[in-house]
């Protein structure tokens, strides 16, 4: 069986791509010697030139794991064009860039299954399937792309871009042999568009050997930030902006938890320091109520080690279960989320590994106290869940099972 995993313009050096794609492909290769894995990476030509040696190192690293990396250069137009949030007129350009090369590669390497990450590459994959008999394609949306752009205020529901992407989305769901859903909330969302599609639930993964509680880092960093051992730390890890990860909702939580008569502080592991500072100043949140640190991805587990609870809140409904949720669980951190983060809410409620806040403005302080009192037992449960359900090895096994299932249909 020849599997090709295809991406569009995502950086090969991105920690997310490394953890969610490269590490998974390596693990799949370890699990089965009967699969040949190819990684088709469409990359801007200037990026290839600027990072040539780094790309060669990645290629060598993958080759050592019997994964063939094929880097496909694209002559990208000026920066005024946003290729990731493509308006309607970008779609034909992406197709022109990808279809001839994808068709050639599929024939050349005799690909049986084409696994497409996100929306941009899927149109070429669908047409490739119509040309080459017998090939199976997997639609791996990661997030609801059209709705995501509405949330980000790039489009509105009446725009031609939104309507066109929704039509393409329906085509992708209909023509793919399988669509990957990160949680059941994804299936609920996409089944409304294409009830007859075949869905396969595969969650985000986390490296549970890297993301694990570190007692040494816990003591050192608590001392560095002058945190008492009994001080409760609520942590948020990731980017912040005015869209789905809106700092306003965390500001409102901080204000509400001023009523909590247990010593506590908030920790934000984010590079968006100015956005956080401006928002918190607007809400008159004092500097001593929170800590903001910008850390490299490799150091995130160290800083998560000083925390007691992981936060993932949104002010608008979204079906996602963020990668940060898996990381919190792996670190043994109970997850505090709200009704708008549908994927995280599903996991917290199903496995009892945290708290779902129903209304930020009317938080039941007793619920916060209760989860603090139950922290130790929930922490053990969270870590166990991450190992059994979200570890890279477990998730790779699910991908392998999906490949075998659709290959034999």
Explain the overall architecture.
By secondary structure, this protein is an alpha/beta fold. It folds into two domains: 2-205 and 391-407, Glycogen Phosphorylase B (Rossmann fold); 215-389, Glycogen Phosphorylase B (Rossmann fold, 3-Layer(aba) Sandwich), CATH 3.40.50.2000. Helices cover 46% and strands 17% of the residues. The protein is built from 17 helices and 13 strands. The chain has helices spanning 15-31, 45-50, 52-63, 91-108, 122-131, 145-151, 160-175, 184-191, 215-224, 247-256, 273-282, 300-304, 323-330, 342-351, 365-373, 375-390, 392-407; strands spanning 2-8, 36-44, 67-74, 113-117, 136-140, 178-181, 199-201, 232-237, 264-269, 290-293, 309-312, 335-338, 354-357. A seven-stranded parallel β-sheet has the order 3-2-1-4-5-6-7, sandwiched between helices. A six-stranded parallel β-sheet has the order 10-9-8-11-12-13, sandwiched between helices. Helix 16 (375-390) packs parallel to helix 17. The relative contact order is 0.11. The mean pLDDT is 95.
Offer a concise description of the structure.
This protein has 409 residues and is α/β, with parallel strands linked by helices. It has helices at residues 15-31, 45-50, 52-63, 91-108, 122-131, 145-151, 160-175, 184-191, 215-224, 247-256, 273-282, 300-304, 323-330, 342-351, 365-373, 375-390, 392-407, and strands at residues 2-8, 36-44, 67-74, 113-117, 136-140, 178-181, 199-201, 232-237, 264-269, 290-293, 309-312, 335-338, 354-357.
Strand and helix layout:
Elements: E1 2-8, H1 15-31, E2 36-44, H2 45-50, H3 52-63, E3 67-74, H4 91-108, E4 113-117, H5 122-131, E5 136-140, H6 145-151, H7 160-175, E6 178-181, H8 184-191, E7 199-201, H9 215-224, E8 232-237, H10 247-256, E9 264-269, H11 273-282, E10 290-293, H12 300-304, E11 309-312, H13 323-330, E12 335-338, H14 342-351, E13 354-357, H15 365-373, H16 375-390, H17 392-407
Helix pairs in contact: 1-17, 4-5, 6-7, 13-16, 16-17
């Amino acid at each position: 069986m020849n599997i090709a995993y295809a991406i569009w313009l995502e950086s090969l050096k991105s920690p997310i791509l490394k953890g969610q794609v490269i590490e998974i492909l390596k693990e799949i290769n370890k699990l089965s010697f009967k699969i040949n894995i190819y990684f088709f990476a469409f990359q801007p030509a200037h990026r290839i030139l600027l990072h040539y040696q780094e790309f060669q190192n990645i290629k060598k690293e993958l080759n050592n794991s019997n994964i063939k990396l094929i880097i496909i250069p694209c002559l990208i137009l000026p920066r005024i064009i946003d290729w990731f949030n493509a308006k309607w007129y970008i779609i034909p350009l992406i197709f022109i860039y990808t279809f001839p090369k994808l068709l050639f590669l599929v024939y050349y390497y005799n690909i049986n299954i084409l696994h497409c990450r996100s929306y941009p590459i899927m149109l070429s994959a669908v047409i490739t399937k119509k040309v080459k008999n017998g090939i199976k394609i997997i639609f791996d949306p990661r997030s609801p792309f059209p709705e995501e752009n509405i949330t980000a205020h790039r489009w509105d529901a009446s725009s031609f871009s939104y309507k066109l992407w929704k039509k393409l989305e329906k085509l992708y769901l209909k023509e793919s042999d399988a669509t990957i859903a990160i949680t059941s909330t994804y299936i609920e969302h996409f089944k409304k568009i294409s009830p007859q599609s075949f869905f396969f639930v595969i969650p985000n993964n986390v490296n549970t050997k890297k993301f694990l509680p570190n007692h040494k880092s816990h003591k050192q960093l608590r001392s560095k930030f002058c945190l008492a051992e009994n001080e409760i730390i609520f942590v948020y890890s990731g980017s912040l902006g005015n869209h789905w990860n809106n700092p306003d909702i965390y500001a409102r939580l901080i204000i509400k938890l001023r009523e909590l008569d247990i010593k506590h502080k908030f920790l934000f592991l984010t590079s968006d320091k100015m956005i956080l500072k401006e928002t918190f100043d607007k809400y008159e949140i004092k500097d001593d109520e929170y800590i903001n640190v910008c850390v490299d991805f490799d150091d995130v587990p160290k800083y998560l080690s000083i925390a007691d609870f992981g936060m993932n809140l949104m002010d608008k409904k979204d079906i996602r279960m963020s990668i940060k949720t898996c990381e919190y669980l792996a670190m043994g951190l109970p997850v505090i989320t709200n009704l708008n983060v549908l994927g995280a809410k599903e996991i917290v409620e199903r496995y009892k590994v945290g708290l779902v806040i129903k209304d930020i403005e009317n938080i039941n302080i007793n619920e916060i106290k209760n989860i603090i009192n139950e922290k130790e037992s929930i922490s053990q449960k969270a870590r166990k869940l991450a190992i059994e359900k979200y570890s890279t090895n477990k998730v790779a096994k699910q991908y392998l099972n999906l490949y075998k299932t659709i290959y034999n249909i």
